[in-house]
Amino acid sequence: MLQAKNICVKFGSNTLLNDAELTVECGQLHVVIGPNGAGKSTLLKALCDDVPLNTGSITYQSKCMNDYKPTELAQCRAVLTQNYDCDFPFTVQEIVDMSHFVHSEYVPSEQLLSYSKQALDTLNVTELANKSFTLLSGGEKQRVQFARVLCQLLPALTQKKPCYLLIDEPTASLDLYHQYQVMKLARDIANQGTAVIAVVHDLALAASFADAITMLEKGKVVAMGKPADILNRVQLQKTYQIDAQLSKQAEHLPSLNIAHTAIQ
Amino acid sequence: MLALSQSFIPVRSAKRMLVTGLLVVCFLIGLISLAIGGVDISLSQLVDILSYGEANSLQHAVIWEIRLPRLLLTMAVGAGLAASGAAMQAIFRNPLADPGLIGITSGAALGAIAAIVLGNSLLSSFSETYGIYAVPMGAFLGCLVICALVYKLSSQGNQFTIISLLLAGIAINAIVSAFIGILTLISSDAELRDLTFWGMGSLAGNSFKMITPSLVIISVCCIFFFKMAKPLNIYLLGEQQAKHLGVNVTALKKQAFIFTALCIGASVSLTGMIGFVGFIVPHIMRLLMGPDHRYLMPASIFGGAILLSLADILARTLILPSELPIGLITSAIGGPFFLVMLLKTYQSRGF
């Protein structure tokens, strides 16, 4: 279980996160949504120690994040950030194999290679394995990086240990098919016992796959709960200033219906 | 899975072969370098002299007292410059980075020039204590002091950011060059000549006794650079990404900085400024075999040794009986190469 309590993050006089809370059980896909500048990415960065906390605490398995050795956390927690520029022409295979670093002492290398293969297959990037990462399209890069974080978790997942996956806008540069594929994959990883926290902009995507949603506004948690309860007309009007609601037809994933008077 | 890993074996084995090939070339160049020079020595004579030749002949003295220490120094310095160049390029995540960028070389220059200019006045006790070692010692100490300063300025708490390292380096570079200017201003004609030539680099006139400390330091640094290969690879993905993959990023940056400082200090203290080796060699090797430091590091080490040995052969044979400063030759090769790389980078980015 990943738990964040009363966390505040300030930069100078700017308060980016104000008393935010979050609890994610293993096996859950928890999506963080909110308008631009609400503090979604800051929350994710706080959870993986990329920004320092002013107050509050973050615990993994009831143990404070700062009490873990960095390698200990890297064995069971993977983070997919928004920026992953790399000017050096590593091949896709080499990028994915970098996730072996923390596992190389206790997992045999053939086993690690088979994890790489599995991760590449899962993300449909096996045929890119020998290509240079710098030559890929934005969407391909994103899927390769997802394969890398998946590969980082596979050793712990296979041993049924508690795992954590933090992803910041995994669908940002993906086409429609791959957006749903990646979210489905996040769902599958959660079903295997991982606590997945994803920052997502697309509310329909969030509603389609999330177990729970945390909605942020101006650094504060304004709503937390099941997608159907959170994404109602009143809440969307309040937070996004838009007249919209979720609709769900039989045998279809939820979509967002937006009133034609919503945008002036 | 098997098909995939099999397709990788040839690539990896090719890289391994290239590294081995470089080692062999390095050895051959060494032999050639020992044979070529003012006194002609045939290869068979060379083998005799190296294996048992007890004779008090001229050739024996030339090999054991002049050419062999010079060759070892050349190779060590070439290797050290190239390896620290590769490490700096990785730490800055920029293929154009160079140890000179963060004040490492200018610190050495200040120390050496201070020892040359002030050796008879302010620092006379220093130059008496160290005798012929005064200038190398001054350069090494200067390098360490300036690096310690840059290190101190760029680390706050447990932070050690690349941008603060770069800014501190630029500022220190400016301050150091002002001091060098002052020392140049008050130097006598003879000292001016000495410090000018120091700035152009020379591999001449070093005995075994003189080079041993540098050889040891450079070797140790190269071993550590090689050990850092895997974390350096991951570091190239980005600092945060590397941290999340389990690399202790701050420690890695500090180690790379410290070993670069030691390695450069040990190199330039004996030889003076030798430009561009640290920049060109990792570059060529990266073009040949990609950015994987597990192969790039040893390839740069051997490649640096080869390049500097070749440059040295040119330096001491082109205008016999005198010799060219080695720094002139490496800069004459390195300058145009740098421009070509720069233009290629611009073109590939579509400017």
From TrEMBL, chain A:
NCBIfam families: PRK13548.1. SMART domains: AAA. Part of the ABC transporter complex HmuTUV involved in hemin import. Responsible for energy coupling to the transport system. InterPro entries: AAA+_ATPase (IPR003593), ABC_transporter-like_ATP-bd (IPR003439), ABC_transporter-like_CS (IPR017871), P-loop_NTPase (IPR027417). Coiled coil: none annotated. Pfam families: ABC_tran. This is Heme ABC transporter ATP-binding protein. Residues 2-243 form the ABC transporter domain. Keywords: ATP-binding, Nucleotide-binding, Translocase, Transport. One of its GO terms (molecular function) is ATP binding. CDD domains: ABC_Iron-Siderophores_B12_Hemin.
From TrEMBL, chain B:
Keywords: Cell membrane, Membrane, Transmembrane, Transmembrane helix, Transport. It is a multi-pass membrane protein. The chain crosses the membrane at residues 71-92, 99-118, 130-151, 163-187, 207-226, 256-283, 295-314, 326-346. It is found in: Cell membrane. Pfam families: FecCD. One of its GO terms (biological process) is siderophore-iron import into cell. GO terms for cellular component: plasma membrane. Belongs to the binding-protein-dependent transport system permease family. FecCD subfamily. This is Iron ABC transporter. It comes from Pseudoalteromonas aurantia.
